Amino acid sequence: MPISDNPSLIREIIMDHYEYPRNKKLKEDQRYVKVNLDSESCIDNIDLQVLVEDNIIKDICFDGVACAISTASTSIMSELLKGKKVEEAKVIIENYLNMLHGEEYDEELLGEAAVFVNTYKQANRIKCATLSWSGLKDIISKDK
């Protein structure tokens, strides 16, 4: 059964990533690209760090204050996209953003990120769920 068909599993995954976020620690390393992401509509204020080498996302980490949706989506994103080739990550991000806007997407590509499948029904939460994903998309889309 897909994650998207199991509301209790969705809640469990989101709360686990909110209470125990993965990769929530900034690195003191000049090779990382760092961006600050914040939202006018929520408490979200995240510093996102990304290390890309040889066209591969070697590391993603973050820190800051954010709501449960934003923290969980950033944590899930950091696990899902770490180790991926940049082009592969772009496809996954595009599918994730399509899902959040109620458009066609491939759930198999999204892993745990599919827990945000119903976010499009709450327009005010879309920004929370996309904040770090959009920041990563901007970082990996810049020409080196």
Q: Can you give keywords for this protein?
A:
144 residues, Sufe protein. Chain: A, three-stranded antiparallel beta sheet, 3 strands
What's the layout of helices and strands?
Layout: H1 7-19, E1 33-38, E2 45-53, E3 56-65, H2 68-81, H3 86-100, H4 107-110, H5 123-141
Antiparallel strand pairs: 1-2, 2-3
Helix pairs in contact: 1-2, 2-5, 3-5
Overview of the structural elements:
The structure is a single chain. The chain has helices at residues 7-19, 68-81, 86-100, 107-110, 123-141, and strands spanning 33-38, 45-53, 56-65. It has one domain: Sufe protein. Chain: A (Alpha-Beta Complex). It is built from 5 helices and 3 strands. The protein is of the alpha+beta class and 144 residues long. α2 packs parallel to α5 (123-141). The longest helix is centred in the C-terminal third of the chain and has 19 residues, at 123-141. The radius of gyration is 14 Å and the shape is globular.
